[in-house]
Amino acid sequence: MEVHAHTHTPRKKWTHYFWEFLMLFLAVFCGFLAEYQLEHKIERDREKQFIQSLVNDLEMDSARLQQIIRLRNEREIILDSLINLIKLPNRATQSRYIYHYNSFATRMTFQFYPNDGTIQQLKNAGNLRLIRKHNVRDSLSSYDVASRFLVSNGNVEEMTFEAYRTVAQEIFDGSILEKTRLESNDVIRLDYDPPLHNKDDAIFKLMYRIHMLKNFIRGMRNLNRQSLEKANNLLALLKEEYHLK
To answer: pLDDT value at position 169?
Structure first.
């Protein structure tokens, strides 16, 4: 009777299992590190994209604020000229200029609407955490608050204009004002002196409303300058911190 011999596998030493465990642990740990580094790189790339987008928005905001400040300066000069002409005893002989300057007194509002698409994305999607630098986050929040305050005050401008128009209609003839507007809505100055409704009480009210317009322009111009300063400071900070040109 043939007997089959059984082969026995030599028992592995504990060190063998230890090295197997160590190699498995290192493989998992290295995979975790690689995934962490990849996620970290993705967040840094997203941060750079947001920063570049912020720079573009701020440059447009800065240009718009500079334009608004210039327009407000021009509006104040026009209102000064209007006041000086209305104060003349012989204002009727200068009515062509009074009509002309009146047309510009409330011609357009200079409301500021910030390019805040990037800021809103950062705030609403919880991406503000991507901005790692605390000084940048603080400066960004300060500019955002100033911009929103400026927008909310801009809504008062139309109310101030409407108060002026209510008084102006007692002095200026609408049919004559119509002649000062071209089809393109551009304003022209007449070559003659049209009549004014020279009621003392109406003139008194108009002078007061011009004064209020000037005060509003000055107040809003100061807010425009403050926002411009914050925008430029934030812009410079972003370029410095993120080494942008």
So the answer is: 92
